């Protein structure tokens, strides 16, 4: 999971599982070097569901 936070300061005391905290300037470089966790097909299916309006309506 990726979370973008617009904060002047961010403190991570503990995380389970461990998290990676990066400044936005380093995000692309670091993430592009990691091994993908999801397959291309899984990403495509998530994208389709995320674009449906009813997915986000309560």
Protein architecture, described:
With 58 residues, the chain is an all-alpha fold. Helix content is 43%, strand content 0%. It contains 3 helices and no strands. It has helices spanning 24-32, 40-51, 53-56. The radius of gyration is 15 Å and the shape is extended. The chain starts with 23 loop residues before the first helix and ends with a helix. The model has no long low-confidence stretch (mean pLDDT 82).
- Biggest sheet overview: none
Q: Supply the helix-strand structural class.
A: mainly alpha
What is the end-to-end distance?
22 Å
**Rg calculated over all Cα atoms:** 15 Å
Beta-strand residue fraction = under 5%
Amount of helix: 40-55%
